Amino acid sequence: MQTDLIQNTRVFKDFEKSFNHFFEECERGFTNEIIINMYCRIYTPGKTVIAYKSNVKEMYFIRQGLVEVYNNENDEIHKEKPILYLPKNSYFGDYQILKNLKSNIVFKTLAHTPDEKKTTAANDQMPDIIFMCISKDALLELCDLFPQTAENITRRALQRRFRFMTQKNTNSRRFNNKKQERETHRAHSAHSTEQSQNKMDAGPISEEQLEDFYTDEEPENFESQKEDMKMYLNKLNKRIDTLVEALKEADQQMAKMGDQKAIIEQINNKKNFKNQGKSGSIESENRMSIADMFKSKINPKKNQK
Predict the structure, then answer these.
(1) φ/ψ (deg, to 5) at 61
(2) 226 and 165 co-located in one domain
(3) Buried b vs exposed e over 220-238: b needs ≥16 C-beta within 10 Å?
């Protein structure tokens, strides 16, 4: 029933065909379930999709637009230089979910074409980036139901990770330093030279290479999830405290104003001041409406600018 629906529905059929490089080693039941459980996410240009050292909660399939991949900014040799571009019909987030890793690279929606300067006009012309997503929980549940497919896509995911890390190393200060140390060591020992060269050669991808995760890919665990939630709640609580204080002050000012007539008078004075420009009195210039006061309290940085 599901197979007939997907193969006879143009949208589903086109999607499966577009991502055949992912689905070709998947069992029919797995393919059906993953397509049915997908949902859409739309990002504007220049937005971070997966941040550095974040827990990856979704796997993304690009339906429209491009995604830039960056190394961690503290490790970059060339600042703000992408290590990779992912075009339409690419996907990412797979190996982080399947191997329970944090992301040690950054995925952002393309803000401008590589040849364009970062101007407002260029950003206005860029379309939104559209993803079809599958949640981490849904993907892992399907992997439990279809172990052969899980083995196939995990093998491919590790191969993809190796290629991502190879690109990451092209703009990595840490990797460059290690490479220089290795070359220095090579100069002192012929035996060391042979071993180092073997490690540096691309060659066939071995399981040891694939399983050799970086320290900033530390596996996700319950404690890290709690820490992420704790940070989020702390930020939320600070925001709520700011809003409560602003509301209290606004309420006090409302009480001082006394009645509706005074409120209307203040609104009219505000309009008159705008019309008069700088010719208004100092008293009027220093007077702040309740709305302006509230905005200044909840957005102090914006107000300073």
Answers:
(1) -115, 120
(2) no
(3) beeeeeeeeeeeeeeeeee
